[in-house]
Amino acid sequence: MAAVGDKSLKARVQEVLALIRPAVQMDGGDLEFVGVDDDGIVSVRLHGACVGCPSSAMTLKMGIERHLREKIPEVREVICV
User: Fold this and answer.
1) How buried is 49 (Cβ within 10 angstroms: 0-12 exposed, 13-18 middle, 19+ buried)?
2) How far apart are CA 59 and CA 65, in angstroms?
3) Which of 10, 12, 60, 73 is the 20 to 30 Å CA partner of 1?
4) 20 within 8 A of 78, measured Cβ to Cβ
5) In sequence order, what are the residues at sequence separation of 6 or more whose Cβ sits closer than 8 angstroms to the Cβ of residue 3?
6) Strand segments (E) across the chain
């Protein structure tokens, strides 16, 4: 459990996603944070060129999820909604 004054899981996830977002936007897509549940499942929505792109699943798992899990151990998985 986070100590008083620590950033919430949601805030930490949003910070990491803000760092990742420019790379996604460079490829014509975008990334929207939807939420994170108590089990560490992060929900995102992909927009623009990411929608229907065959590489979007790889971007989601090998890019977004990998970065989040490296920086925030509580994150277990990232799903696209």
Assistant:
1) middle
2) 8
3) 60
4) no
5) none
6) 29-36, 41-48, 77-80
Tokens of 22: 């420019």
Quote the CA–CA distance of 37 and 30 in Å, as a whole number.
22
pLDDT value of position 9: 95
The sign of the dihedral angle between the CA atoms of 70, 12, 52, 28 is negative
CA count, 13 A, side-chain hemisphere, 3: 1
List of domains in the chain: 9-80 (3.30.300.130)
Is the Cα torsion angle 6, 9, 10, 12 positive or negative in sign? positive
CA distances from 24 to 4, 6, 50, 61, 73 (A): 33, 28, 8, 13, 22
pTM for the predicted model, two decimal places: 0.86
